[in-house]
Design a protein that fits this description.
single chain; about 110 residues; Aspartate Aminotransferase, domain 1; five-stranded antiparallel β-sheet; 4 helices; 5 strands; about 35% helix
Amino acid sequence: MSSLELYEKLVETIPEIERKGAANPYTSVNGHMFSHLTPAGTFALRLPKEELEKFLTKYKTTLFESYGVVKKEWVVVPASLLKDTKTLRGYFRLSYEFVKTLKPKPTTKKG
């Protein structure tokens, strides 16, 4: 399976969310992104601070960097974990629940 297919399989584990973005697939709630798949197939996930360090240590990974900026709440999900939907869906749900607690961003869409 490709990274995109694995990502879509993961997104399907939470029926109330939808995958957005064509070239840069992502998920968001209340205007805050919580997962992102780069065109190169790197999967990044936003985690609460208390889980971030544990994840980095457990999976021997790094913070996610986008356009030269290190994203402090984001981790790079190892490709081996992306293939393990059963394990990863717990972190995906955790990420979703965390971002739902953030103050909604004002919408920029014109009505």
